[in-house]
Backbone:
């Protein structure tokens, strides 16, 4: 994929739970990658990251993660590390894969 | 076992109270993450991929039933019903909520446990031979030395901000079960020709991105000089260790760049100065500690049932032969409870399994439990006559896997399933290896072998010192696994060498299969272990098996 076709999401870890969260279209945080805002240019993603990074009483260590548009243009992880953050560990049915989908941040 | 005195107890409680206030301030927004992170790390609290992780110290891997039960309670109440035992003889909880951690630390303090100095650039939990006070090859109990070092190093004001983390291991035997040559300081108990007890001191060992074996810096250190000498090493390291580059900050790099002779001279000079500061309180303290580690009075019990099971129950006798080691008392055995069931996660135990182990230790094993750096649990003193009951209860708890020292007794770090530093997964590799070789029924034919897996270059899974080491890396977002051959963690320690290009997750297990089939062909006799065979032949024939021409072409 060329640099022009790169997509990004803004992700972080929740301050209290420590789990993975993503920034959505309304500028709030979501626990589901599928609801995250997909950025198609790095500059605007970095600007949004700077804004998001100020809310440090909610989350810890926000960063840009490479993603790709999947079904219905919903973001999907590009890297295996982000795949694991999105679902949970592979040795137990714990983490996101086992959590009710409507748990809000 | 050493019991906390009032000072220890008040200190640990004080730290919990302090941390509770820090967590409250973080949650209220009064502390930023930049301010809070060093404080949480001082209390063993990391932030990983899915959650916080709390690393709890188990000093020199020793705990009693009450403490093990408390770990089980914590896992059940604040985590997901299990704990992960690590290569540092610690236990890690993978799912605590930040707000709950002060309560967890209070629950630990109730049973004289804590998470202090399990992280950060300080002297970490001192590790020791897990067969301490039970092995028949022991010169002295290494835990006396480890406990003295624990008391000296805990909250030592001078050594809280070292250039990098600092790990010390102690062995009381010539047979090194504590991997002392892979530590910043390795301490080996010795006895000179006059019968005086002392130590051989090694420095500069470590795995990670620059693996090096420790070198002898003092061949005989009289016992009473231990603390001033170790303090001298730390002072020299604290002063001259590099702080400009975290990858060059360990004492092994200082040793490499300074040279052994010069560093030795610097340490000896500092030692002369240090000696005058130790008034003898350390020797008094040591006497008290030695009394605390007095071995139990071993009581033999009739072993008719044991004899019957050994002849009439092949599963029992196989388990006995594989999972027990010779105890210094002929009527006892050292039992290693494998935390490596086929397809399981190396080092994990559920709350109910922890309780079974606690009950067995209390009922039959003089209330002593150990954690090994190989991620298993040891009951160090079990009367032979009780082994049939112990086996039956372990079997009911699915803890009877008879594989200690064999292929599926794998060390694996948490890897990318949990760890924020990891570049590849480790646990599924271990699971697949144990499942595949169980299907092939080759484990017993292959015999003793150490497979060690790390999910990144930091080498928590000790891959450099495995007969077969596996290092998981990230190649453009895809997991890739390098194999090293010929490592050894024992007193004959050796760093393994990389065999060649890495393998994909899917290609790794077939490659290991070819490697081990080659070993079975190459060995002179069944008694020639993989390690011995590799020492005799070198890596070349094994590399041919890993990278045959037809497979390379297909790739």
Residues:
């Amino acid at each position: 994929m060329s640099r022009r076709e790169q997509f990004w999401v803004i992700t972080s870890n929740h301050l209290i739970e420590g789990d993975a969260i993503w920034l959505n279209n309304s500028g709030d945080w979501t626990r589901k990658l599928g609801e995250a805002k997909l950025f198609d240019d790095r500059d605007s993603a970095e600007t949004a990251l700077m804004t998001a990074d100020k809310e440090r009483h909610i989350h810890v260590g926000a960063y840009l993660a490479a993603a790709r548009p999947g079904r219905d243009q919903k973001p999907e992880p590009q890297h295996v590390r982000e795949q694991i953050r999105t679902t949970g560990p592979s040795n137990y049915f714990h983490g996101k894969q086992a959590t009710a989908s409507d748990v809000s941040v | 076992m050493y019991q906390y005195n009032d000072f220890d107890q008040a200190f640990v409680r004080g730290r919990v109270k302090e941390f509770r206030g820090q967590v409250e301030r973080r949650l209220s927004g009064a502390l930023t993450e930049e301010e809070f992170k060093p404080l949480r790390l001082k209390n063993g609290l990391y932030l990983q991929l899915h959650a916080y992780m709390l690393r709890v110290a188990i000093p020199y891997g020793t705990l009693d039933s009450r403490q093990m039960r408390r770990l089980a309670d914590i896992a059940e109440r604040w985590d997901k019903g299990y704990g992960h035992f690590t290569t540092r003889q610690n236990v890690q909880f993978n799912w605590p909520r930040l707000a709950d951690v002060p309560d967890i630390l209070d629950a630990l303090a109730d049973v004289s446990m804590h998470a202090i100095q399990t992280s950060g650039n300080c002297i970490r939990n001192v590790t020791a031979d897990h067969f301490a006070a039970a092995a028949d090859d022991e010169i002295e109990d290494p835990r006396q030395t480890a406990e003295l070092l624990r008391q000296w190093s805990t909250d030592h004001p001078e050594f809280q901000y070292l250039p990098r983390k600092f790990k010390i291991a102690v062995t009381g035997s010539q047979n090194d079960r504590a991997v002392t040559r892979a530590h910043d300081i390795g301490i080996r108990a010795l006895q000179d020709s006059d019968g005086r007890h002392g130590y051989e001191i090694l420095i500069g060992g470590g795995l990670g991105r620059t693996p090096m074996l420790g070198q002898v810096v003092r061949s005989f250190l009289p016992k009473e000089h231990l603390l001033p000498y170790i303090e001298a090493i730390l002072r020299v390291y604290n002063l001259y260790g590099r702080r400009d580059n975290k990858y060059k900050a360990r004492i092994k790099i200082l040793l490499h760049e300074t040279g052994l002779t010069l560093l030795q001279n610097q340490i000896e000079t500092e030692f002369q100065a240090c000696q005058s500061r130790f008034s003898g309180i350390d020797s008094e303290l040591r006497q008290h500690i030695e009394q605390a580690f007095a071995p139990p009075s071993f009581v033999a019990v009739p072993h008719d049932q044991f004899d019957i099971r050994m002849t009439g129950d092949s599963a029992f006798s196989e388990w006995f032969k594989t999972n027990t080691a010779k105890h210094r008392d002929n009527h006892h055995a050292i039992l290693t409870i494998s935390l490596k069931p086929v397809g399981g996660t190396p080092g994990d135990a559920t709350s109910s399994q922890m309780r079974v182990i606690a009950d067995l230790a209390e009922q039959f094993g003089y209330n002593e439990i150990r954690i090994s750096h190989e991620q298993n649990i040891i009951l160090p003193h079990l009367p032979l006559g009780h082994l049939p009951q112990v086996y039956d209860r372990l079997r009911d708890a699915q803890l009877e896997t008879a594989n200690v020292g064999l292929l599926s007794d794998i060390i694996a770090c948490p890897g990318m399933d949990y760890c924020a530093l990891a570049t590849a997964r480790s646990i599924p590799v271990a699971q697949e290896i144990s499942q595949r070789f169980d299907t092939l029924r080759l484990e017993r034919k292959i015999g003793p072998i150490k497979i060690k897996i790390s999910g990144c270059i930091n080498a928590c899974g000790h891959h450099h010192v495995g007969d077969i080491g596996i290092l998981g890396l990230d190649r453009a977002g895809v997991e890739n696994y390098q194999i090293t051959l010929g490592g050894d963690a024992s007193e004959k320690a050796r760093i393994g060498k990389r065999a060649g290009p890495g393998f994909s997750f899917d290609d790794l297990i077939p490659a290991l299969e070819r490697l081990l089939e080659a070993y079975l062909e190459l060995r002179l006799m069944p008694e020639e272990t993989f390690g011995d065979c590799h020492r005799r032949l070198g890596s070349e024939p094994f590399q041919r098996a890993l990278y045959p021409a037809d497979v390379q072409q297909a790739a």
Q: What stands out?
A: Chain B has four domains: 6-109, 134-292, 304-396, 411-554. Chain B has a mean pLDDT of 96. The domain at 6-109 of chain B is CATH 3.90.480.20 (Sulfite Reductase Hemoprotein; domain 2).
